[in-house]
Protein backbone atom coordinates (compact mmCIF):
# COMPACT_ATOMS: atom_id res chain seq x y z
CA UNK A 1 0.00 0.00 0.00
CA UNK A 2 2.77 2.46 0.88
CA UNK A 3 4.50 1.60 -2.38
CA UNK A 4 1.38 2.66 -4.31
CA UNK A 5 0.52 5.61 -2.08
CA UNK A 6 3.97 7.13 -1.63
CA UNK A 7 6.69 5.17 -3.40
CA UNK A 8 5.36 5.25 -6.96
CA UNK A 9 4.37 8.97 -6.99
CA UNK A 10 7.70 10.06 -5.49
CA UNK A 11 9.60 7.70 -7.82
CA UNK A 12 7.85 9.11 -10.91
CA UNK A 13 8.55 12.62 -9.69
CA UNK A 14 12.26 11.89 -9.24
CA UNK A 15 12.47 10.36 -12.74
CA UNK A 16 10.80 13.42 -14.28
CA UNK A 17 13.07 15.74 -12.27
CA UNK A 18 16.15 13.95 -13.61
CA UNK A 19 15.13 14.60 -17.22
CA UNK A 20 16.86 17.34 -19.17
CA UNK A 21 14.04 19.83 -18.64
CA UNK A 22 13.86 18.96 -14.93
CA UNK A 23 17.59 19.45 -14.42
CA UNK A 24 17.44 22.76 -16.30
CA UNK A 25 14.66 23.96 -14.00
CA UNK A 26 16.76 23.07 -10.93
CA UNK A 27 19.79 24.93 -12.32
CA UNK A 28 17.68 28.01 -13.12
CA UNK A 29 16.20 27.97 -9.62
CA UNK A 30 19.68 28.33 -8.08
CA UNK A 31 21.33 30.56 -10.69
CA UNK A 32 19.19 32.63 -13.05
CA UNK A 33 15.94 32.93 -11.10
CA UNK A 34 16.65 32.53 -7.38
CA UNK A 35 13.81 34.75 -6.12
CA UNK A 36 11.23 31.92 -5.64
CA UNK A 37 13.72 29.86 -3.59
CA UNK A 38 14.64 32.74 -1.28
CA UNK A 39 11.02 33.91 -1.05
CA UNK A 40 9.94 30.40 -0.05
CA UNK A 41 12.59 30.12 2.66
CA UNK A 42 11.77 33.57 4.07
CA UNK A 43 8.06 32.76 4.11
CA UNK A 44 8.70 29.41 5.83
CA UNK A 45 10.83 31.06 8.51
CA UNK A 46 8.24 33.77 9.20
CA UNK A 47 5.38 31.27 9.37
CA UNK A 48 7.40 29.04 11.71
CA UNK A 49 8.32 31.97 13.97
CA UNK A 50 4.92 33.71 14.11
CA UNK A 51 2.88 30.51 14.34
CA UNK A 52 5.05 29.05 17.11
CA UNK A 53 4.95 32.25 19.17
CA UNK A 54 1.17 32.41 18.81
CA UNK A 55 0.83 28.72 19.68
CA UNK A 56 2.97 29.19 22.81
CA UNK A 57 0.99 32.23 23.99
CA UNK A 58 -2.39 30.56 23.46
CA UNK A 59 -1.20 27.34 25.13
CA UNK A 60 0.24 29.22 28.12
CA UNK A 61 -3.03 31.08 28.58
CA UNK A 62 -5.02 27.83 28.49
CA UNK A 63 -2.80 25.96 30.95
CA UNK A 64 -1.48 28.59 33.37
CA UNK A 65 -4.04 31.40 33.43
CA UNK A 66 -7.58 31.64 34.75
CA UNK A 67 -10.06 33.81 32.86
CA UNK A 68 -13.66 33.53 31.61
CA UNK A 69 -14.29 31.95 28.22
CA UNK A 70 -11.34 29.50 28.16
CA UNK A 71 -13.33 26.76 26.41
CA UNK A 72 -14.60 29.18 23.78
CA UNK A 73 -11.04 30.40 23.26
CA UNK A 74 -9.88 26.80 22.77
CA UNK A 75 -12.36 26.15 19.97
CA UNK A 76 -11.72 29.52 18.34
CA UNK A 77 -8.02 28.72 18.30
CA UNK A 78 -8.69 25.39 16.57
CA UNK A 79 -11.17 26.83 14.05
CA UNK A 80 -8.60 27.44 11.25
CA UNK A 81 -7.80 23.71 11.28
CA UNK A 82 -11.27 22.78 10.05
CA UNK A 83 -11.76 25.53 7.47
CA UNK A 84 -10.68 25.66 3.81
CA UNK A 85 -7.12 26.94 3.37
CA UNK A 86 -8.14 30.12 1.50
CA UNK A 87 -11.12 31.05 3.68
CA UNK A 88 -8.88 33.21 5.85
CA UNK A 89 -7.14 34.75 2.81
CA UNK A 90 -10.42 35.74 1.18
CA UNK A 91 -11.72 37.31 4.40
CA UNK A 92 -8.43 39.20 4.88
CA UNK A 93 -8.75 40.69 1.39
CA UNK A 94 -12.31 41.76 2.16
CA UNK A 95 -11.30 43.38 5.44
CA UNK A 96 -7.80 44.73 4.79
CA UNK A 97 -7.37 44.90 1.01
CA UNK A 98 -7.02 48.04 -1.08
CA UNK A 99 -10.76 48.65 -0.74
CA UNK A 100 -11.15 46.69 2.48
CA UNK A 101 -13.93 47.32 4.94
CA UNK A 102 -11.51 48.15 7.76
CA UNK A 103 -8.41 49.40 5.96
CA UNK A 104 -10.09 51.70 3.40
CA UNK A 105 -13.67 52.36 4.49
CA UNK A 106 -12.85 52.76 8.17
CA UNK A 107 -9.35 54.29 8.08
CA UNK A 108 -9.04 55.47 4.47
CA UNK A 109 -5.85 53.47 3.86
CA UNK A 110 -5.21 51.58 0.63
CA UNK A 111 -3.26 48.82 2.31
CA UNK A 112 -1.34 46.39 0.10
CA UNK A 113 -2.14 43.06 1.70
CA UNK A 114 -0.87 41.04 -1.25
CA UNK A 115 2.66 39.68 -0.94
CA UNK A 116 4.85 38.56 1.93
CA UNK A 117 3.12 40.41 4.75
CA UNK A 118 -0.33 39.06 3.94
CA UNK A 119 0.92 35.53 3.29
CA UNK A 120 2.88 35.39 6.55
CA UNK A 121 -0.15 36.45 8.61
CA UNK A 122 -2.68 34.22 6.85
CA UNK A 123 -0.56 31.05 6.75
CA UNK A 124 0.52 31.57 10.37
CA UNK A 125 -3.11 31.90 11.40
CA UNK A 126 -3.98 28.75 9.44
CA UNK A 127 -1.29 26.54 11.00
CA UNK A 128 -0.81 28.08 14.47
CA UNK A 129 -3.27 25.53 15.92
CA UNK A 130 -0.67 22.81 15.23
CA UNK A 131 1.84 24.60 17.48
CA UNK A 132 -0.90 25.28 20.04
CA UNK A 133 -1.81 21.59 20.32
CA UNK A 134 1.83 20.44 20.53
CA UNK A 135 2.91 22.97 23.15
CA UNK A 136 -0.28 22.72 25.20
CA UNK A 137 0.07 18.95 25.43
CA UNK A 138 3.59 19.24 26.86
CA UNK A 139 2.63 22.05 29.23
CA UNK A 140 -0.20 19.97 30.69
CA UNK A 141 2.23 17.14 31.43
CA UNK A 142 4.70 19.29 33.38
CA UNK A 143 5.05 18.40 37.06
CA UNK A 144 3.38 21.14 39.19
CA UNK A 145 5.91 20.49 41.97
CA UNK A 146 8.60 22.12 39.84
CA UNK A 147 6.76 25.44 39.93
CA UNK A 148 6.01 25.06 43.64
CA UNK A 149 9.71 24.47 44.31
CA UNK A 150 10.70 27.54 42.29
CA UNK A 151 8.23 29.70 44.22
CA UNK A 152 9.46 28.28 47.53
CA UNK A 153 12.98 29.41 46.57
CA UNK A 154 11.72 32.94 45.99
CA UNK A 155 11.47 32.97 42.18
CA UNK A 156 8.99 35.39 40.66
CA UNK A 157 6.45 34.18 38.11
CA UNK A 158 8.27 36.13 35.39
CA UNK A 159 11.49 34.30 36.29
CA UNK A 160 9.64 30.96 36.32
CA UNK A 161 8.21 31.64 32.86
CA UNK A 162 11.63 32.21 31.27
CA UNK A 163 13.80 29.87 33.38
CA UNK A 164 11.44 26.94 34.08
CA UNK A 165 8.49 26.85 31.68
CA UNK A 166 10.30 27.80 28.47
CA UNK A 167 13.23 25.36 28.89
CA UNK A 168 10.86 22.53 29.79
CA UNK A 169 8.67 22.96 26.69
CA UNK A 170 11.57 23.75 24.37
CA UNK A 171 11.28 20.36 22.54
CA UNK A 172 7.64 21.10 21.69
CA UNK A 173 8.55 24.64 20.62
CA UNK A 174 11.31 23.47 18.27
CA UNK A 175 9.15 20.66 16.90
CA UNK A 176 6.33 23.12 16.23
CA UNK A 177 8.67 25.55 14.52
CA UNK A 178 9.96 22.85 12.18
CA UNK A 179 6.44 21.63 11.37
CA UNK A 180 5.21 25.13 10.62
CA UNK A 181 8.34 25.90 8.61
CA UNK A 182 7.51 22.97 6.32
CA UNK A 183 3.86 24.06 6.08
CA UNK A 184 5.01 27.54 5.09
CA UNK A 185 7.24 26.10 2.38
CA UNK A 186 4.52 23.84 1.01
CA UNK A 187 1.38 25.98 1.05
CA UNK A 188 -0.10 26.66 -2.38
CA UNK A 189 -3.69 27.80 -1.85
CA UNK A 190 -2.84 31.04 -0.06
CA UNK A 191 -0.08 32.12 -2.51
CA UNK A 192 -2.58 31.63 -5.35
CA UNK A 193 -5.03 33.99 -3.64
CA UNK A 194 -2.71 36.42 -1.81
CA UNK A 195 0.65 36.00 -3.52
CA UNK A 196 0.44 38.93 -5.91
CA UNK A 197 3.94 39.45 -7.27
CA UNK A 198 5.55 37.43 -4.47
CA UNK A 199 6.62 34.22 -6.19
CA UNK A 200 7.20 31.03 -4.21
CA UNK A 201 8.17 27.55 -5.36
CA UNK A 202 4.70 26.06 -4.80
CA UNK A 203 3.02 28.59 -7.07
CA UNK A 204 5.80 28.27 -9.66
CA UNK A 205 5.19 24.51 -9.77
CA UNK A 206 1.48 25.11 -10.27
CA UNK A 207 1.97 27.67 -13.05
CA UNK A 208 4.49 25.41 -14.81
CA UNK A 209 1.83 22.70 -15.11
CA UNK A 210 -1.40 24.69 -15.35
CA UNK A 211 -0.02 27.52 -17.48
CA UNK A 212 2.67 25.89 -19.61
CA UNK A 213 1.95 22.15 -19.42
CA UNK A 214 5.62 21.59 -18.55
CA UNK A 215 5.49 18.71 -16.10
CA UNK A 216 9.25 18.03 -16.26
CA UNK A 217 10.19 21.57 -15.21
CA UNK A 218 7.53 21.43 -12.50
CA UNK A 219 9.05 18.16 -11.26
CA UNK A 220 12.49 19.81 -11.09
CA UNK A 221 11.09 22.66 -9.00
CA UNK A 222 9.22 20.13 -6.89
CA UNK A 223 12.50 18.40 -6.03
CA UNK A 224 13.92 21.77 -4.93
CA UNK A 225 10.94 22.03 -2.58
CA UNK A 226 10.91 18.37 -1.54
CA UNK A 227 14.53 18.03 -0.41
CA UNK A 228 14.51 20.75 2.31
CA UNK A 229 11.07 19.57 3.47
CA UNK A 230 12.32 15.98 3.90
CA UNK A 231 15.53 17.15 5.59
CA UNK A 232 13.60 19.31 8.07
CA UNK A 233 11.16 16.46 8.68
CA UNK A 234 14.03 14.03 9.37
CA UNK A 235 15.62 16.52 11.80
CA UNK A 236 12.28 17.03 13.54
CA UNK A 237 11.65 13.29 13.83
CA UNK A 238 15.16 12.65 15.12
CA UNK A 239 14.81 15.49 17.63
CA UNK A 240 11.41 14.39 18.89
CA UNK A 241 12.68 10.82 19.18
CA UNK A 242 15.75 11.71 21.24
CA UNK A 243 14.69 14.77 23.19
CA UNK A 244 12.39 14.28 26.14
CA UNK A 245 11.82 16.01 29.42
CA UNK A 246 11.61 13.71 32.44
CA UNK A 247 10.56 15.44 35.63
CA UNK A 248 9.66 12.72 38.13
CA UNK A 249 9.65 8.98 37.67
CA UNK A 250 6.16 8.64 39.14
CA UNK A 251 2.95 10.54 38.55
CA UNK A 252 3.02 14.35 38.78
CA UNK A 253 2.45 15.61 42.31
CA UNK A 254 0.90 18.80 43.54
CA UNK A 255 -1.80 20.99 42.06
CA UNK A 256 -1.11 23.50 39.30
CA UNK A 257 -1.87 27.03 40.50
CA UNK A 258 -2.81 29.81 38.14
CA UNK A 259 -0.30 32.58 37.42
CA UNK A 260 -1.32 35.79 39.19
CA UNK A 261 1.57 38.15 38.42
CA UNK A 262 0.25 41.08 36.37
CA UNK A 263 3.58 41.33 34.55
CA UNK A 264 2.80 37.94 33.02
CA UNK A 265 -1.01 38.02 32.87
CA UNK A 266 -1.50 41.40 31.19
CA UNK A 267 0.87 40.92 28.21
CA UNK A 268 -0.30 37.35 27.62
CA UNK A 269 -4.02 38.15 27.87
CA UNK A 270 -3.58 41.25 25.69
CA UNK A 271 -1.97 39.21 22.91
CA UNK A 272 -4.58 36.47 23.37
CA UNK A 273 -7.34 39.05 23.07
CA UNK A 274 -5.88 40.54 19.88
CA UNK A 275 -5.45 37.13 18.24
CA UNK A 276 -8.89 35.92 19.31
CA UNK A 277 -10.52 39.10 18.05
CA UNK A 278 -8.78 38.62 14.71
CA UNK A 279 -10.05 35.05 14.40
CA UNK A 280 -13.58 36.07 15.39
CA UNK A 281 -13.48 38.95 12.89
CA UNK A 282 -12.25 36.70 10.08
CA UNK A 283 -14.88 34.00 10.59
CA UNK A 284 -17.61 36.53 11.28
CA UNK A 285 -16.80 38.04 7.88
CA UNK A 286 -17.05 34.59 6.27
CA UNK A 287 -20.44 33.95 7.86
CA UNK A 288 -21.88 37.41 7.10
CA UNK A 289 -20.34 37.47 3.63
CA UNK A 290 -22.35 34.42 2.61
CA UNK A 291 -25.59 36.11 3.71
CA UNK A 292 -25.16 39.54 2.07
CA UNK A 293 -25.17 40.55 -1.58
CA UNK A 294 -21.65 42.03 -1.59
CA UNK A 295 -20.26 42.51 1.89
CA UNK A 296 -19.01 46.07 2.40
CA UNK A 297 -20.69 47.28 -0.81
CA UNK A 298 -24.27 46.06 -0.71
CA UNK A 299 -25.01 44.62 2.71
CA UNK A 300 -28.57 43.61 1.87
CA UNK A 301 -29.50 40.21 3.29
CA UNK A 302 -29.79 37.47 0.68
CA UNK A 303 -29.74 33.70 0.38
CA UNK A 304 -28.73 33.78 -3.28
CA UNK A 305 -25.19 32.60 -2.54
CA UNK A 306 -26.47 29.54 -0.70
CA UNK A 307 -28.98 28.93 -3.49
CA UNK A 308 -26.08 28.98 -5.93
CA UNK A 309 -24.20 26.46 -3.81
CA UNK A 310 -27.30 24.28 -3.53
CA UNK A 311 -27.91 24.28 -7.29
CA UNK A 312 -24.36 23.98 -8.64
CA UNK A 313 -22.41 22.67 -5.64
CA UNK A 314 -24.56 19.79 -4.42
CA UNK A 315 -22.64 17.26 -6.51
CA UNK A 316 -19.32 18.56 -5.14
CA UNK A 317 -20.66 18.23 -1.59
CA UNK A 318 -21.76 14.63 -2.10
CA UNK A 319 -18.54 13.73 -3.92
CA UNK A 320 -16.40 15.24 -1.15
CA UNK A 321 -18.29 13.37 1.56
CA UNK A 322 -18.22 10.08 -0.36
CA UNK A 323 -14.46 10.24 -1.00
CA UNK A 324 -13.78 11.25 2.59
CA UNK A 325 -15.77 8.34 4.02
CA UNK A 326 -14.02 6.00 1.56
CA UNK A 327 -10.59 7.16 2.75
CA UNK A 328 -11.25 7.05 6.51
CA UNK A 329 -11.37 3.26 7.15
CA UNK A 330 -8.36 2.59 4.92
CA UNK A 331 -6.31 5.32 6.60
CA UNK A 332 -7.22 3.95 10.05
CA UNK A 333 -6.38 0.38 9.02
CA UNK A 334 -2.99 1.37 7.62
CA UNK A 335 -2.18 3.63 10.58
CA UNK A 336 -2.82 0.87 13.11
CA UNK A 337 -1.11 -1.78 10.98
CA UNK A 338 2.08 0.26 10.61
CA UNK A 339 2.11 1.10 14.33
CA UNK A 340 1.57 -2.57 15.28
CA UNK A 341 4.45 -3.69 13.06
CA UNK A 342 6.76 -0.97 14.33
CA UNK A 343 6.07 -1.46 18.04
CA UNK A 344 5.13 -5.12 18.45
CA UNK A 345 6.64 -7.10 15.58
CA UNK A 346 9.88 -5.42 14.47
CA UNK A 347 10.72 -2.68 16.98
CA UNK A 348 14.33 -2.46 15.82
CA UNK A 349 13.91 -3.08 12.10
CA UNK A 350 10.89 -0.96 11.19
CA UNK A 351 12.30 2.56 11.48
CA UNK A 352 12.22 2.82 7.69
CA UNK A 353 8.56 1.74 7.64
CA UNK A 354 7.75 4.29 10.33
CA UNK A 355 9.53 6.99 8.33
CA UNK A 356 7.77 6.14 5.06
CA UNK A 357 4.38 6.09 6.76
CA UNK A 358 5.01 9.56 8.16
CA UNK A 359 6.02 10.99 4.77
CA UNK A 360 2.43 12.02 4.15
CA UNK A 361 2.97 14.90 6.57
CA UNK A 362 6.45 15.71 5.23
CA UNK A 363 5.93 15.78 1.47
CA UNK A 364 4.56 19.19 0.42
CA UNK A 365 1.05 18.92 -0.95
CA UNK A 366 2.00 20.42 -4.30
CA UNK A 367 4.78 17.87 -4.70
CA UNK A 368 2.53 14.97 -3.69
CA UNK A 369 -0.23 16.05 -6.08
CA UNK A 370 2.19 16.41 -8.96
CA UNK A 371 3.65 12.98 -8.18
CA UNK A 372 0.18 11.42 -8.32
CA UNK A 373 -0.54 13.14 -11.63
CA UNK A 374 2.71 11.80 -13.11
CA UNK A 375 2.25 8.31 -11.64
CA UNK A 376 -1.39 7.65 -12.47
CA UNK A 377 -2.17 9.68 -15.59
CA UNK A 378 -1.25 6.54 -17.60
CA UNK A 379 -1.56 2.81 -16.87
CA UNK A 380 0.97 1.47 -14.37
CA UNK A 381 3.15 -1.32 -15.79
CA UNK A 382 5.21 -3.92 -13.92
CA UNK A 383 7.48 -6.48 -15.63
CA UNK A 384 5.87 -5.72 -18.96
CA UNK A 385 2.28 -6.10 -17.73
CA UNK A 386 -0.28 -3.41 -16.84
CA UNK A 387 -1.14 -3.73 -13.14
CA UNK A 388 -3.21 -0.57 -12.73
CA UNK A 389 -5.35 1.24 -15.29
CA UNK A 390 -5.04 4.96 -15.89
CA UNK A 391 -6.85 6.82 -13.16
CA UNK A 392 -6.90 10.01 -15.20
CA UNK A 393 -9.80 9.21 -17.46
CA UNK A 394 -7.86 10.42 -20.48
CA UNK A 395 -7.11 13.88 -19.07
CA UNK A 396 -3.42 14.77 -19.29
CA UNK A 397 -2.93 15.93 -15.72
CA UNK A 398 -6.08 14.82 -13.97
CA UNK A 399 -7.22 11.82 -12.06
CA UNK A 400 -10.46 10.30 -10.94
CA UNK A 401 -11.94 9.79 -7.54
CA UNK A 402 -9.65 6.82 -6.79
CA UNK A 403 -6.50 8.95 -6.99
CA UNK A 404 -8.06 11.66 -4.80
CA UNK A 405 -9.04 9.06 -2.21
CA UNK A 406 -5.46 7.76 -2.28
CA UNK A 407 -4.18 11.27 -1.55
CA UNK A 408 -6.64 11.58 1.33
CA UNK A 409 -5.31 8.30 2.74
CA UNK A 410 -1.68 9.44 2.46
CA UNK A 411 -2.46 12.67 4.32
CA UNK A 412 -4.54 10.88 6.96
CA UNK A 413 -2.05 8.16 7.93
CA UNK A 414 0.66 10.12 9.84
CA UNK A 415 -1.41 11.48 12.75
CA UNK A 416 -3.12 8.15 13.38
CA UNK A 417 0.14 6.26 13.03
CA UNK A 418 1.95 8.47 15.52
CA UNK A 419 -0.94 8.30 17.97
CA UNK A 420 -1.18 4.51 17.64
CA UNK A 421 2.56 4.09 18.19
CA UNK A 422 2.35 6.18 21.37
CA UNK A 423 -0.66 4.19 22.54
CA UNK A 424 0.94 0.80 21.88
CA UNK A 425 4.11 1.79 23.73
CA UNK A 426 2.00 2.56 26.80
CA UNK A 427 0.50 -0.96 26.81
CA UNK A 428 2.66 -3.47 28.64
CA UNK A 429 3.36 -6.54 26.45
CA UNK A 430 2.37 -8.82 29.35
CA UNK A 431 -1.28 -7.84 28.77
CA UNK A 432 -1.14 -9.35 25.29
CA UNK A 433 0.95 -12.28 26.52
CA UNK A 434 -1.80 -13.06 29.02
CA UNK A 435 -4.32 -13.33 26.19
CA UNK A 436 -2.04 -15.70 24.30
CA UNK A 437 -1.52 -17.81 27.43
CA UNK A 438 -5.26 -18.51 27.66
CA UNK A 439 -5.47 -19.67 24.05
CA UNK A 440 -5.98 -16.57 21.94
CA UNK A 441 -4.08 -16.41 18.65
CA UNK A 442 -2.34 -13.27 17.41
CA UNK A 443 -5.36 -12.05 15.42
CA UNK A 444 -7.74 -12.55 18.34
CA UNK A 445 -5.33 -10.77 20.69
CA UNK A 446 -5.06 -7.85 18.30
CA UNK A 447 -8.83 -7.63 17.79
CA UNK A 448 -10.04 -8.22 21.36
CA UNK A 449 -7.24 -6.74 23.48
CA UNK A 450 -4.95 -4.39 21.59
CA UNK A 451 -7.42 -2.51 19.39
CA UNK A 452 -9.86 -1.65 22.22
CA UNK A 453 -6.94 -0.25 24.24
CA UNK A 454 -5.77 2.02 21.40
CA UNK A 455 -9.24 3.20 20.41
CA UNK A 456 -8.29 6.86 21.12
CA UNK A 457 -5.52 6.55 18.53
CA UNK A 458 -8.00 5.19 16.02
CA UNK A 459 -10.31 8.12 16.75
CA UNK A 460 -7.37 10.47 16.13
CA UNK A 461 -6.85 8.85 12.73
CA UNK A 462 -10.55 9.20 11.92
CA UNK A 463 -10.82 12.87 12.89
CA UNK A 464 -7.54 13.84 11.23
CA UNK A 465 -8.46 12.11 7.97
CA UNK A 466 -11.87 13.78 7.93
CA UNK A 467 -10.58 17.29 8.59
CA UNK A 468 -7.63 17.06 6.20
CA UNK A 469 -9.62 15.41 3.43
CA UNK A 470 -12.55 17.80 3.46
CA UNK A 471 -10.40 20.94 3.59
CA UNK A 472 -7.42 20.09 1.37
CA UNK A 473 -6.78 21.60 -2.06
CA UNK A 474 -3.00 21.80 -2.43
CA UNK A 475 -2.47 18.04 -2.67
CA UNK A 476 -5.30 17.42 -5.15
CA UNK A 477 -5.14 20.50 -7.33
CA UNK A 478 -3.45 18.58 -10.16
CA UNK A 479 -5.72 15.54 -10.04
CA UNK A 480 -9.23 16.98 -9.93
CA UNK A 481 -11.37 16.76 -13.06
CA UNK A 482 -14.78 18.12 -14.07
CA UNK A 483 -16.11 14.64 -13.36
CA UNK A 484 -14.76 14.57 -9.78
CA UNK A 485 -15.56 17.95 -8.30
CA UNK A 486 -14.65 18.62 -4.67
CA UNK A 487 -15.77 21.53 -2.53
CA UNK A 488 -12.34 23.09 -2.06
CA UNK A 489 -11.70 23.30 -5.80
CA UNK A 490 -15.15 24.85 -6.26
CA UNK A 491 -14.31 27.48 -3.63
CA UNK A 492 -11.05 28.28 -5.40
CA UNK A 493 -12.94 28.72 -8.68
CA UNK A 494 -15.30 31.22 -7.04
CA UNK A 495 -12.41 33.15 -5.47
CA UNK A 496 -10.57 33.29 -8.82
CA UNK A 497 -13.73 34.65 -10.45
CA UNK A 498 -14.09 37.31 -7.74
CA UNK A 499 -17.42 35.92 -6.51
CA UNK A 500 -16.52 36.18 -2.85
CA UNK A 501 -20.11 35.83 -1.67
CA UNK A 502 -20.38 32.37 -3.22
CA UNK A 503 -16.97 31.48 -1.81
CA UNK A 504 -18.02 32.58 1.69
CA UNK A 505 -21.20 30.49 1.44
CA UNK A 506 -19.15 27.47 0.35
CA UNK A 507 -16.70 28.01 3.23
CA UNK A 508 -19.45 28.33 5.85
CA UNK A 509 -21.15 25.20 4.57
CA UNK A 510 -17.89 23.26 4.49
CA UNK A 511 -17.02 24.25 8.07
CA UNK A 512 -20.51 23.20 9.19
CA UNK A 513 -20.16 19.88 7.37
CA UNK A 514 -16.78 19.15 8.97
CA UNK A 515 -18.16 19.95 12.43
CA UNK A 516 -21.22 17.79 11.78
CA UNK A 517 -19.15 14.83 10.59
CA UNK A 518 -16.80 15.12 13.57
CA UNK A 519 -19.76 15.33 15.96
CA UNK A 520 -21.32 12.26 14.35
CA UNK A 521 -18.01 10.42 14.68
CA UNK A 522 -17.82 11.28 18.38
CA UNK A 523 -21.40 10.12 18.97
CA UNK A 524 -20.81 6.81 17.19
CA UNK A 525 -17.58 6.27 19.11
CA UNK A 526 -19.30 6.99 22.44
CA UNK A 527 -22.07 4.52 21.57
CA UNK A 528 -19.51 1.84 20.74
CA UNK A 529 -17.67 2.53 23.99
CA UNK A 530 -20.87 2.10 26.01
CA UNK A 531 -21.80 -1.07 24.14
CA UNK A 532 -18.37 -2.68 24.46
CA UNK A 533 -17.40 -1.24 27.84
CA UNK A 534 -18.03 -4.28 30.09
CA UNK A 535 -16.44 -6.65 27.59
CA UNK A 536 -13.37 -4.45 27.12
CA UNK A 537 -12.85 -3.97 30.85
Q: How would you explain this protein's 3D organization?
A:
- The protein has 537 residues and is mostly helical.
- 72% of the residues lie in helices and 3% in strands.
- The chain has 23 helices and four strands.
- It has helices at residues 2-17, 20-30, 35-64, 70-78, 87-96, 116-140, 144-152, 157-168, 170-186, 189-194, 201-210, 215-242, 262-289, 304-312, 314-345, 351-362, 365-376, 401-425, 429-437, 442-453, 455-471, 487-496, 500-536, and strands spanning 292-294, 298-301, 380-382, 385-388.
- The strands form two sheets. Strands 1-2 form a two-stranded antiparallel sheet.
- Strand 1 and strand 2 form a beta hairpin.
- It is globular, with a radius of gyration of 24 Å.
- The chain starts with a helix and ends with a helix.
- The model is unreliable at 243-252 and 392-399 (pLDDT under 50).
Amino acid sequence: ALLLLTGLPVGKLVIAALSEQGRSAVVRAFTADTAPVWNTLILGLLVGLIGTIVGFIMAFAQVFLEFPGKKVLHWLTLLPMISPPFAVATAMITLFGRRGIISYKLFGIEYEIYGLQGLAIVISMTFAPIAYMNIRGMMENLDPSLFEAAKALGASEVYILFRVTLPMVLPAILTSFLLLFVEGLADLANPLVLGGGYRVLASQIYFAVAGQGDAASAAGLAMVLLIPAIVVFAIQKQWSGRSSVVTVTGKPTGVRTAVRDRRVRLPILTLVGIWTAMIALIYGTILVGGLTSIIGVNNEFTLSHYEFVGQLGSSAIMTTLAMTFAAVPIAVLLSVSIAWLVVRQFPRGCRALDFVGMLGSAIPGTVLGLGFALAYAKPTWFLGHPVLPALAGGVAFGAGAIAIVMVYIVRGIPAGQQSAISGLRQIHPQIEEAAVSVGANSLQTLRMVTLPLIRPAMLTAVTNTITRSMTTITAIIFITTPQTKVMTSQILDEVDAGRFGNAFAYCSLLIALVLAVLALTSVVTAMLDRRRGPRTS
